[in-house]
Amino acid sequence: MLLPLYALLVIADCVAAFNPSGSYAPANVSCPEDASFVRPASGISESETEWLKKRHAITDVYLAEFLDRADLEDFDAQDFLESLNRSINVGLAFSGGGYRAMLNGAGQISALDNRTAGADSHGLGGLLQASTYLAGLSGGNWLTGTLALNNWTSVEEIISGDTIWDLEHSIINSGGINIFSTASRWDDISDAIQDKQDAGFNTSLTDIWGRALSYQFFGEEDDGGVSLTFSGIAQFEPFINAEMPFPFSVAVGRAPHTKIINLNSTVFEFNPFELGSWDPSLYSFTELKYMGSDVSNGEPTSDICVQGYDNGGFVLGTSSSLFNQFLLQLNTTSLSGIVYDLIYSFLTNLDEDSDDVAIYHPNPFLDTSYAALQTIVESEYLYLVDGGEDYQNIPFAPLLQPERDVDVIFAFDNSADTDDNFPNGTSLSATYDRQFGSQGNGTSFPYVPSMDTIIAYNLTEKPLFLGCNASNLTDLGTIPPLVVYIPNIAYTTWSNTSTFKMSYDNDERDAIIQNGFEAATRYNLTIDENWHKCVACAIIHREQERNNITQSDECAECFQEYCWNGEQYTGDETVLARSLNYTSSSNHEVSSISAAGADGSTSTASASSQSTSSSHNAAVSFGPSYSAGFIAVAVAPMIGLMF
Ligand SMILES: *[C@@H]1O[C@H](CO)[C@@H](O)[C@H](O)[C@H]1NC(C)=O
Ligand SMILES: *[C@@H]1O[C@H](CO)[C@@H](O)[C@H](O)[C@H]1NC(C)=O
Ligand SMILES: *[C@@H]1O[C@H](CO)[C@@H](O)[C@H](O)[C@H]1NC(C)=O
Ligand SMILES: *[C@@H]1O[C@H](CO)[C@@H](O)[C@H](O)[C@H]1NC(C)=O
Ligand SMILES: *[C@@H]1O[C@H](CO)[C@@H](O)[C@H](O)[C@H]1NC(C)=O
Ligand SMILES: *[C@@H]1O[C@H](CO)[C@@H](O)[C@H](O)[C@H]1NC(C)=O
Ligand SMILES: *[C@@H]1O[C@H](CO)[C@@H](O)[C@H](O)[C@H]1NC(C)=O
Ligand SMILES: *[C@@H]1O[C@H](CO)[C@@H](O)[C@H](O)[C@H]1NC(C)=O
Ligand SMILES: *[C@@H]1O[C@H](CO)[C@@H](O)[C@H](O)[C@H]1NC(C)=O
Ligand SMILES: *[C@@H]1O[C@H](CO)[C@@H](O)[C@H](O)[C@H]1NC(C)=O
Ligand SMILES: *[C@@H]1O[C@H](CO)[C@@H](O)[C@H](O)[C@H]1NC(C)=O
Ligand SMILES: *[C@@H]1O[C@H](CO)[C@@H](O)[C@H](O)[C@H]1NC(C)=O
After folding, report:
1. Which residues line ligand 11 (CB under 6 A)?
2. Radius of gyration (Cα) for the chain, nearest Å?
């Protein structure tokens, strides 16, 4: 049964981004000598440290260019950066929220990408190239994962091609009216899941979900990235050359046999080298490439290890596992094989406690010794769920670790918090609160406006800077990064589509992407021509503070315009009630644009005001051929609150 060891070595050596098995089934390989896969979370990994040296050489150059183009008064970017004894770290975070978050996020990231036409002249082009870290969660991780796992492709490249992000048909019904094509897709998915089971590994709905998503994100080649691994990102040239930021996917741990998720939950990050958590409840990282190996305290229990467990789609599916539940609307009578068995058993057992769970077995953290709590490390299984389930729908965690020393985080919030699917800053409060709990462990997050404040002062009408003044933050554990919060704002199309909208035609898709570009750039720098300057001011601010450099008048004006002044709203409720309706009040531009009937937004606008006036459940929208009933009952109450 076992391959001879030399054969295993040869296979392991020639694989690049891919599972040595060439399929979805994890593969046996020989263990590295003296292997010990787990380490305490006391710092960043050696691999990350080494990689950062290369990355900083590149971000320094791009940052200098970006700052130069901002044309700040009395400021020489080159001199400034050279005077520092470190590199400035910019972190980007993309929230969850299904395809709405993926597409708005795509437009937002394209506005920072100097590969996008127009990003240099009326956007923030080059900021992506100057960023050190890139975090995605749930729908946001579909975006960051698609880019990273496709050899660091660009949004513009994706939408000008026709191989990925074809969202016209939901994954439930991938062939559209061609039911044979749909059926054959499900057969392929079924075979892949069967392969993993045959190799002796447990599977869960998340395996099916991840496989199904993968065809949209990785195309038909390699059968929808069936053997593509997340750790394989480290084998792509743009990563090897550090020409892309360091990517994270964020998920949340769930204690075995419970459904409880709160700010005590363990937040996990996947990065190209490791999986793990900085939280005291685990405080460990494991080498991602060897996940799936039988280990105790991180040491293999035999000389046979496993590779290929960390399938790319499986990781992206884990971070977005709440959407697993869409699979339960699959027509089981037209399915066969293992997919039928799994869906059928969930439908009949109504095992609601685990239908959003990704099962990782064997648990790579079994019997490790660094965790303050035993819950995770004593279990044979590691259970991970959607990164947004703890209400922290923006993936801040990896970027707040003092060890990563991030100066500024650009936080793109495409959550659906309000009745009409716009963000209301809820996740900022969740992350703020967490620092004071037992899982905070030295991370800090700037003071945040209360929900009432955000609403009463219309704070999601434009970008918002938090933590502008470090001297105001000394009561916190450490000085946190400055946060540039950029909410979804509708300018040229109603970008507040339902979290449950599972299909988009290319026009809808591209319109939301364009709107995302506009939201990140203050409507292509037309609302504020100084926006690029103000972003530059935010980036250099922490280092200016550290070095006692007085802020220029120009930057002070920017901070006046964009920083939260610390004032909490204490006024009466009627103001809040009035402001609740974002669709009618906040988004002036799209209101006037749709009034003028431009961009075909009239039809989407009416769809949106429909959802405004209706309840959460009624706002759920599915592909035409599927009944909304089941999901409206089973899923909406859960997701509705969270995204
Ligand atoms: C992998 O190794 C395990 C023992 O560690 C064995 O049970 C299993 O059958 C092997 N799988 C393959 C595909 O060789
Ligand atoms: C992006 O910026 C780099 C560095 O200035 C430059 O070499 C490259 O040509 C730019 N790319 C585009 C598409 O403008
Ligand atoms: C804003 O810029 C983007 C990227 O160049 C472009 O696609 C979009 O049409 C512009 N929006 C407006 C309203 O001109
Ligand atoms: C990945 O992109 C780089 C350019 O950034 C290119 O040189 C390389 O051939 C690509 N690799 C693959 C596998 O497509
Ligand atoms: C979180 O954990 C702490 C310490 O274990 C405990 O005191 C607190 O009640 C927990 N909070 C929640 C919401 O479970
Ligand atoms: C499910 O699929 C079967 C076989 O393809 C078909 O006869 C049946 O009408 C389908 N049921 C629904 C509810 O679509
Ligand atoms: C803000 O969002 C949270 C979470 O989605 C929601 O519970 C709350 O009702 C929202 N508040 C307002 C005023 O929109
Ligand atoms: C973080 O947690 C670890 C493990 O519990 C502990 O050793 C460490 O001192 C904590 N760090 C801070 C800054 O609290
Ligand atoms: C918030 O927006 C509403 C509607 O545009 C406006 O009436 C109100 O004055 C604004 N509030 C503040 C504090 O700007
Ligand atoms: C900045 O000023 C403070 C207080 O005046 C001083 O303690 C600190 O050493 C100065 N830092 C630098 C880098 O000059
Ligand atoms: C900063 O500190 C001052 C003085 O304590 C306080 O008045 C102000 O509200 C604070 N600002 C913020 C943003 O916390
Ligand atoms: C929100 O505004 C829209 C458009 O003006 C209106 O149709 C809708 O009834 C309002 N909804 C609420 C809850 O006030």
Report:
1. 447, 472, 564, 566
2. 24
